[in-house]
Amino acid sequence: MFRIAAASHCRLALLAVLVAAPAFSQTAAPASAPAATHPLRVFDPSLVDTSVDPCQNFYRFSCNGWFKRNPLPPDQAEYGRFTELYELNRLHLRQILEQAAVPSPTRTPNEQKIGDEYASCMNTADIDQKKLAPIQPELERIAALKSNQDLPALLAHLHAIGVNAFFDLGSNQDFADSNSMISFYSAGGLGLPERDYYTRTDAKSVEQRRQYVDHVHNIFMLAGEPEAQARKDAGTVLAIETELAKASLTITELRDPKNLDHPTNLAAFSKVLTHFSLPEYVAAAHAPASGKMNDTEPKFFAAFNALVADTPLDQIKTYLRWHLLHAYAGTSMPQSFDHETWHFYAHILNGTEKEQDRWKRCTSRVDHEMGEALGQVYVARYFPPEEKQQALAMTLSIEQAMDKDLDSLDWMSAETKVKAKEKLHAVMNKIGYPDKWRDYSRLTIVRGDALGNQERVREFDFARDLAKIGKPVDRGEWFMSPPTVNAYYDPQMNNVNFPAGYFQPPFFSDKEDDAANYGDMGSTIGHELTHGFDDEGRQYDKDGNLKDWWTREDEQKFNDRANCMVKQYDAIEAVPGVHLNGRLTLGENLADLGGLWLAWLAWQDKAEAAHLDMTAKTDGYTPDQRFWIAYAQQWCTQTRPEQLRTQAQTDPHAPDEYRTNTVLTDLPEFARSFSCKKPAPMVAPQPCRIW
Ligand SMILES: [Zn+2]
To answer: 596 C-alpha vs ligand 1 centroid, how far in Å?
Structure first.
């Protein structure tokens, strides 16, 4: 993920999030649509299509009614239950922002910032009228580069303002010592979604590269270059990025933290970077020069060093100019830039037919930039304390289920079980929002300066991130804003994080019963918890250190079971000619299966304790059946073929149809609830199972 989004940093790559984050938040922000006219429910019998046999295709059985009611809106690459709720939350955020945008002496400092930033973003007349003037000083800074010797200082500045050129610097917990924050140097510098876009040779990929060059060319033209020059410069950008891509790890390799753990320090790292003065870069970035560093991708940095030596200065300037324009071509620059960027990233790569309304994008922008200033108001209005308590109780019950499940595993030794339980008991549960809100007092937001604001926000984030190095780790920090409809597990923190925005219908409701809530939100809680024990998460100990705690035999048994799932997902052809990548999606698939299983166990315990009549039907379904339908209905999603292709090639999550059906085929408990008999598409001939 960190190599995709321009302004993100290394830590996010290590987080296991529930649903795919949009690849390009500037343009392809989470989808939008008119607010739902139908009330959102966790278990909704009106969505079920009884003409479909649940043993044939449970996803269609559970979701067809939703598909009929929700045609894919033209400004969406995909539209599902997550977007449905995201849109509702975005409407609420819009109301907060529109109120905060009214100038008034009674506004709090945070209200001034979020309100004025929203107003600046909405003022397209002002942004268009200024043309390139706000970005001009930065363009001139690049043009003034006299030699490769001056590159370190320039690059440090560009990194500080969020330009994803060449590589990325950020802070992160040391893999070997999770109590220590150190510098992480990561591969970066690509404009296409990930490295394989530069190397694949199939016709579609070749065509996409040609379209990418057209896009870079168009951006250079908009910035005032003559046609021929822009064409030549676009070719230069592709050539440099291809060199970087070839030296970068694949997205599958990036999932294994051992591939990213290469401790070094300034003196040793400087010996690798013979053509790029790391001390000068570090000084200009105001990053610590002493202490441990991590050269996460040695092969990449060796290639970067060679590239700096071998590339003519003019070509380096061209490359930097592209990444500067690319980093700001969203809502801060004239609409011609904005539209061109949308056209390539959202239309060509993801199939969207229409740009999102400005207010939606400006709302998402403020949420992205000052999520805890906006989120503080959001939480006060929309997340009552009782809900936090309910969410916590549910989380604890899923953790208890995992404890019991570990006891019952026949393949894991007593020795490894003890360690697994230690890790489980050490998981920290974070629900809703931070205990301590982020302090934005050092950030200046000026009404009417959209681009300057964005620059200052990025500088603020960069400095805040680097300031963590050498300080105690803040385990209470959040990496998602409170209104976010998503969740994540952080392996180095060993914590699960469920933002407030998620605890609402259609995922959770205190008006619905346990069958529905456990099938839906319960499975998500189980999913995040299972990430601590997936192929990636299991490599970390209870304190978040990358330290092996498995016996060799147990590790082998785990890998054998995991390989069953690799094969299962490798066999799925998501779009003609493109199969899912069983290795890339393994962690998420393990979390889906394990999470649903844990939710099922917790729900069975709940039902038993309540002496529930398991044969009594509500809306035509038994409690168990409603559990499975609620699980499936959270994944009802319409997706464009272009988006599905991009997703299959880049996303560690399987598409939602398989997150439903493939997972369920592995659970005989599901088959029993619907009396599905082998052979049937919803019953795997040889189910995979770990937990
Ligand atoms: Zn996940």
So the answer is: 12
